[in-house]
Amino acid sequence: MKQGWEIKKLGEVCNINYGTRVVQKKDGGTIYPVYGGGGATFKMDRYNREDCLIVSRFAMSNQCVRYVRGKFFLNDSGLTIESNESELSQSFLDKHITALNDTIYSLGKGVAQKNLDIKELRLLDIKYPKSREEQERIVAELDCLSGVIERKREQLRELDALAQSIFYQMFGDPITNEKRWETEELQKVSTLLNGRAYKQNELLDSGRYKVLRVGNFFTNSNYYYSDLELEDDKYCDNGDLLFAWSASFGAFIWNGGKVIYHYHIWKVVISSIIDKLFLYDYLEMDARKLYNQIQGGTMAHITKGDMEQRYIPVPLMEEQRKIAEILGVWDEAIEKQSRLIEKLELRKRGLMQRLLIGRTRLPGFTTPWQKRRMEDCFEHITDTSNGCEYLPMTISARLGLISQKDKFDRVIAGDSLKKYTHIQKGDFAYNKGNSNLYEMGCIYRLKEQDAVVPFVYICFRPKQNEIGEFYQHFFINHGLDRQLKRIITSGARGDGLLNVDKTDFFELEIVYPPIAEQKAIAEVLTAADNEIVTHRKKLDALRLQKRGLMQQLLTGKTRVKI
């Protein structure tokens, strides 16, 4: 164990708090979602939890640990875990418990449904650094990674939506079958082979074979191993078509070498009348539809029998291959451009983390950095619109300051518009609402013309115009997060905003390099931003080109030669 770290049993450092039994017929309402062993099941008019991690107690699913934001009601099929150790922060504990999801799931007992063994839960090892500062640093780094992951997921969601639209255009809806293609049940064109069901004690930290689980396709890059020698159909290898059918859905062409695949994955062995890549594209589209149809229970899944009876369009083989080829070319180009953008964003993130705290100095700069209070560098803005018409704007954690009309398709200010704060080009605004990207709220700078923003935002202006560009990057890089966490008095208020006092906010300390060095750092980071924007435009162009090509094919203006 690392020096300066402690290891204790969960029951020694934590309190386990159970939810309260409720039933929809008697307790149902319309306001707060009810959580328990899985996702939200119905709503009530009262709540007993807010912004916390919950663990499945009864009817456990693969995702038995989840963080629920906002107010909600926890029923008796779930529990919460609260630190009772002064040395162990709740935020670090939440991250630790989340990482133990698979271990906690393995503690479930029962055949028809898994119920958590609480005695075993209390005996789990909790490892943590004694230093609260180190705990906070670890949490901050994990949050930073979560932000990168969320941006990647957002890109993937956009691409998925585009792919689904194009696929419907290409294939038509299998229910209406306007293309008049032949259709067959999936079991007529392929065979679904189940992987192996593992007990937790059979999953090793190292071994001959990797064990491929559903989570490895989506969120979990860590693998278990096995030394077991199994039947040939329990292994998959490069080029195999796989389908995840439990908790998360999706089709995949596996290219990670020979592995043992888990029971919650099917290997799809195709017949001679279906093209593998065509079937992959279709199953990937169908997976999203399947998930939307059956999610909401404690564990989203589809039975093998139901899956085998789903109808698959079967055009002529030449047409299948041509369609798969067309989609493959454009998907490859989009994927390549997306990977490039991701690398550029990670590179910029690394630059920010080094340059904005002085860990790496640009050539020619050696003067020590100062620390100053926010109030020394910025002035608080309280001016209202004073009857003048300015663009009402809001802050999106992902997009920054944008017009309310662009975000909500309408202006939501209503009668409160006259109370909105008037800000000018170059001013900053702090939105105290937390999000996956910015748990402590986010700060963005107004890039263009004057605007008004909600009066609950904390708005401020640089006392020296020259420092604005530097701090634009500093705030986006979570420069104030650790200090904000210390001054936030409690969780979210009734309006969903964090309790941040204005006086405390302007007492926060910020790094203050010499002006010339601030400008140089800002130029480097702005150049990185511009490079990312350029490549995003290329990605958008690829998407438009793909849409245009599909429209040509669908209208018959351009025919696919087979």
Give a written overview of the molecule:
By secondary structure, the chain is of the alpha+beta class. It has four domains: 5-130, Alpha-Beta Complex (Adenine-n6-DNA-methyltransferase TaqI, Chain A, domain 2); 134-180 and 329-364 and 515-562, Bipartite methylase S protein (Helix Hairpins, Orthogonal Bundle); 182-314, Adenine-n6-DNA-methyltransferase TaqI, Chain A, domain 2 (Alpha-Beta Complex); 370-512, Alpha-Beta Complex (Adenine-n6-DNA-methyltransferase TaqI, Chain A, domain 2), CATH 3.90.220. It is 38% helix and 24% strand. The protein is built from 17 helices and 30 strands. The strands form nine sheets. The protein has a six-stranded mixed β-sheet. A hairpin with a 1-residue loop joins strand 16 (241-246) and strand 17. The model is unreliable at 550-559 (pLDDT under 50).
